[in-house]
Design a protein that fits this description.
The protein is an all-alpha fold. The chain has 15 helices and no strands. The protein has two domains: 180 residues, no CATH class; 143 residues, no CATH class. 70% of the residues lie in helices and 0% in strands. Helix 9 packs antiparallel against helix 10. The two termini are 48 Å apart.
Length: 344
């Protein structure tokens, strides 16, 4: 039976770039993916549909890995909130994978959504034994205690469940989805092909344990994204012009402002002051595009300066942190449509 019109419209939007993950879960749990695309796109041949099915599977795994890496970042934090968030992210990652397994095996929920325990019961009822079943169920129980009873997880406990989640993810990827964990890359979520390729190069450097190169490439990526693609400073300058009614500021930072004083003794100080005002304006308005990643950016830049002082273990940790920061910032800007050209 074909999906109703509203369902068709939602899936069609997914074709062109995005749809809420929760909506996708609901739709894909109730309507076979192949049937949806056959209904919506009858002009496509079977190979087109199967390719789209494969892309959808990869996207789900990439999002689950992104969730895991968010938890990974929080797990390294020493504060209580970071540890609580880490367990939430790990549990969410596991549940996304369980839903993916259910969809792949054609298991449908009795209601609109699967509950965690029902997911496990249905999957195991399909003559399949989940890896690390006791550990992921224990983590889910702990997650509920954190959310509903305010429990504070210990640092050692978070590290333990981080390892359980990673091991579960790797085994499910290999045995169920036929895709190695290492081949699931966040760069696949980036729409701009050139930018995606640059991030993929940094990911490959990390996979080859060339952590210094990974960090150097990450630095180049953030520069390229900021200056060449997003034109952050150009947009920031235009925002500044809208926020202030003062014509004096625009005049002072203009390229030829100091030229009128060329014959004066104070020409050089005026030129330097004009440049300083321009840089101050760029910095103050440009920072807003970083939003919650301001401190991550600061840590990233500080780490780059002391890269030669890091031990091998520290270098690996900082390379992972840097790669996550750069990728997450790009995905944030992509979602906010900052990479799109704006006609001013």
């Amino acid at each position: 039976m074909p999906p109703n019109r509203s369902t068709a419209e939602v899936i069609y939007k997914q074709e062109s770039g995005g749809c809420e993950n929760e909506i996708l879960d609901n739709l894909c749990s109730t309507v076979p993916f192949f049937d949806l695309h056959s209904y919506l796109f009858p002009h496509r041949n079977t190979s087109d549909i199967m390719i789209k099915n494969q892309n959808f599977k990869i996207r789900r795994l990439v999002l689950a890995k992104k969730m895991f890496l968010h938890g990974y970042d929080h797990a390294s934090g020493k504060d209580e909130i970071s540890r609580m968030l880490a367990i939430h992210h790990f549990d969410n990652c596991v549940e996304m994978l369980l839903k993916g397994i259910a969809i792949k095996r054609g298991i449908e929920p009795r209601k609109m959504n699967f509950y965690f325990e029902e997911l496990i019961q249905k999957i195991e009822g399909d003559k399949y034994s989940l890896p690390l079943k006791n550990q992921i169920m224990s983590q889910h129980t702990w997650r509920n205690q954190i959310q509903h009873e305010g429990d504070i997880p210990s640092f050692d406990g978070v590290q333990k469940y981080r390892n359980y989640t990673e091991d579960f993810f790797k085994e499910v990827c290999n045995k169920i989805f036929g895709t190695p964990f290492e081949k699931i890359n966040l760069s696949q979520l980036i729409y701009d092909k050139k930018l995606s390729a640059k991030v993929r190069s940094a990911e490959r450097a990390f996979e080859k344990n060339d952590f210094k190169r990974c960090m150097k490439l990450s630095e180049g990526i953030i520069t390229h994204a900021t200056l060449d693609i997003a034109d952050i400073y150009g947009k920031a300058g235009r925002l500044t012009s809208y926020w202030t009614s003062s014509k004096e500021f625009s005049k002072v930072i203009s390229d030829n402002y100091a030229d009128r004083y060329k014959k004066e003794k104070f020409y050089k100080p005026v030129m330097e002051l004009s440049q300083a005002m321009l840089q101050l304006g760029m910095s103050s308005t440009g920072m807003q595009f970083l939003d919650e990643y301001r401190m991550d950016f600061l840590k990233f830049m500080i780490t780059l300066k002391k890269i030669d002082e890091l031990s091998d273990d520290e270098l690996k940790e900082e390379a992972q942190y840097s790669l996550n920061f750069v990728t997450n910032l790009i995905l944030k800007w992509q979602e906010e449509k900052i990479f799109e050209e704006i006609l001013f």
